[in-house]
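retry 2 of 3: previous attempt timed out while embedding zinc ion. Reduced batch size to 1 and resubmitted. Inputs unchanged:
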Amino acid sequence: MTALADLIRVLDGAYPPALAEPWDSVGLVCGDPAEELTRVLFAVDATAAVVEEAIDWRAQALVVHHPLLLRGVDTVAASTPKGALVHRLIRSGCALFTAHTNADSAAPGVSDALAAALGLTVTGPLDAKPESAVDSWVIQVPRTHTDAVLAALFAAGAGRQVNHCDCAVRVPATAQFRPMTEGSPGQETLGELQYAEEERVEVAAPSSARSAVLAALRAAHPGEDPVYHIGERAQLPSSLGLGRVGTLPEPESLRAFTDRVARALPSTAWGVRAAGDPDRAVYTVAVCGGAGDSYLSRATALGVDAYVTSDLRHHPVDEHLRKGGPALVDAAHWATEFPWCAQAEAVVRTALPGLETRVSTLRTDPWTVRATG
Ligand SMILES: [Zn+2]
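retry 2 succeeded.
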């Protein structure tokens, strides 16, 4: 039996909640992780129409990108629009799960799906997130106490990797010392060189757990003054973060590139429009699914030819172009994130092949009319 808990595990693995922005709300909104799951619907927004589609199709889970409930929620009364949806979902046995800014920063994530739809070869994130800092601990332990010391370090947060716990390297070591003062260990052989069977233990731990690991080491190590050193691991370039930068197969005009974006994304009343010289050559491109106006200067600093995002406004765009920034391509917010639905569906389909999955084709872009005059 596949349970909702299995879906949560798979989605949290692909889009780790720790990557979400601090203000965001991601994960399970409603639903019982223990309940059986056979059908999952994917969409950008949990609108009333999408919720109806999920229920009509008898899905037990609806996975969306945008949080239904974010800040300041103090009621889910059925007399409120969002509360009514929560009631409808719970009464119909359909869970709601959100992967928002965690799906934006994951690799692959929302902007990878957008870049792939546009035919870009991705070279990295637009705004890379630093990988979380890791300490490397090297500790000298009497062989009789290695297991106990390691158990204490693991309990304090050391030795965890993506798919493993209790990870350590143990190297046999021989310590030597010469007792020099009365009352010290081995004083009966004062002045004579002594040897002790030890192990050199190496474990990794998040830098945030440094105090806890040190306290655990001091409590579990039999020596009064344990020998250890801590190294900070070098931060490697991260593939995680918001937006993506990539290249087209060949340079093309901004006019042709704008057509490419329009063909690649589902059509909307909003459409696709570009700012900049229509004949400007476009080869390197930055993309950011959703509202990416806060990365205009970042796209300029990277020297790309064009930046594709949504929700752009007159004055920031005007200022940006005056400063010689890349051409801007503005598409409907929903359309830039829609390619992610198929990516998330593929993640779930691969990990849980017994499930029936489907991407909603309902257009949840709020703009409905376009008049060309
Ligand atoms: Zn969005």
